[in-house]
Design a protein that fits this description.
Elements: H1 9-13, H2 19-33, E1 39-43, H3 49-56, E2 60-65, H4 68-77, E3 83-85, E4 97-102, H5 113-125, E5 127-135, E6 148-155, E7 160-170, E8 173-183, E9 188-198, H6 202-211, E10 215-219, E11 228-232
Parallel strand pairs: 1-2, 1-4, 2-3, 4-5
Antiparallel strand pairs: 5-11, 6-7, 7-8, 8-9, 10-11
């Protein structure tokens, strides 16, 4: 979905997000929940901005993303980490981590409840006994309505980007239509993207991760205003 816009992703989001503050909050949550944590897996890692800052906090961070271009950017930004192309609902890295993260509502891209359960099992399987999973959710049903229109215009020394988005709801799925206008000295380019994100209730999210064998805590306050799920894999008996 980001194959054409990946190279502009940081340019679009950097002015609107405080990655350093987000990572400081992640570190605070992890240190208070699992002080011994050293290794992390960022599921839906995007361009690896969180991973790079988490490494500065002393963590060893790996990541996966379904978008090839994101993984290439994240790998270049984090040469010490392991970054691979993978579907969060169907992956096996053959190892476990102290902390598994899925941030910026990436979990919504699973779209269906069945794939949510599959993703929960994958995340749990990659969490070491006693480890934790942090999930930043997408919106719940009824929290987002159709008809939202947004526009962002950004630029650097080489390119100017205007992105307009339209959001509407189809049942339990949010559809985001993006139109890009990208101008450079060589050309003006226009292209489109459509993103589909599932709307899952707190009960659906909790059930999916409990069925995967995790102990689930929902927090109304988290890294953003969308709350946070803090799940723990029980110690082996």
């Amino acid at each position: 979905m980001f194959d054409r816009s990946a190279s502009y992703y940081d340019l679009i989001y950097d002015p609107h997000r405080d990655y350093a503050a987000e990572v400081d909050e992640i570190d605070r949550i992890v240190r208070s929940s699992l002080p011994s944590a050293k290794t992390m897996l960022d599921v839906g890692c995007g361009t690896g901005r969180h991973a790079a800052l988490l490494q500065l906090h002393g963590y060893e961070v790996s990541g996966i993303d379904i978008e090839i271009a994101f993984v290439e950017i994240a790998s270049e930004r984090n040469p010490k980490g392991r970054f691979e192309v993978a579907d969060m609902a169907a992956f096996d890295l053959g190892e476990g981590f102290d902390v598994v993260l899925s941030l910026f509502s990436a979990i919504g891209y699973v779209e269906t409840e069945e794939r949510l359960r599959q993703a929960a099992r994958c995340l749990a399987a990659h969490t070491r006994p006693g480890g934790i999973v942090l999930i930043e959710p997408w919106f719940e049903p009824g929290q987002i309505t159709s008809g939202r229109i947004y526009m962002r215009a950004v630029e650097d020394e080489e390119v100017k980007v205007c992105r307009m988005s339209r959001t509407f709801v189809e049942g339990d799925v949010t559809v985001l239509q993006f139109e890009y206008l990208v101008g450079s000295a060589e050309s003006i380019e226009r292209f489109s993207e459509t993103h589909r994100m599932g709307l899952f209730s707190r009960e659906q999210m909790t059930a999916a991760f409990e069925e995967a064998g995790l102990e689930v805590e929902h927090r109304t306050e988290g890294i953003s205003d969308r709350g946070l799920y803090l799940c723990r894999r029980p110690e082996a008996s």
